[in-house]
Design goal:
Blueprint (H helix, E strand, L loop, with lengths): L1 H29 L8 H19 L3 H30 L7
Helix pairs in contact: 1-2, 2-3
Length: 97
């Protein structure tokens, strides 16, 4: 089990932490279009904090895995659609489809 804990921590350090930092910079760039207090913004940040704590503690790897899957679904099904719409409105992105 210790090897798995170490692998999760390494995954956090090398993959998730930089990814979460990029997402949080994106939130800042969206400014008032996705302001502090927005439920989706707050959920993203809350999930990031919880995942960081679970990865660093290594105590409940099943909870870490479950939350990571839920977080990914939330991003894909809710948050990214909103971000895409904001960027389209700003003229910052062309979306195919």
């Amino acid at each position: 089990m210790e090897v798995l804990r170490e692998e999760v921590l390494e995954f956090w350090r090398m993959e998730l932490s930089p990814h979460f930092q990029a997402e949080e910079r994106m939130l800042e760039a969206l400014g008032e279009d996705l302001p502090p207090g927005d439920p989706d913004r707050e959920r993203l940040l809350r999930d990031h904090r919880a995942l960081k704590g679970l990865a660093q503690s290594g105590e409940d790897l099943l909870a870490f895995a479950d939350l990571l899957v839920e977080h990914i679904h939330f991003e894909e099904e809710t948050l990214f659609g909103r971000v895409e719409a904001i960027l389209r409105e700003r003229g910052s992105v062309e979306v195919e489809g």
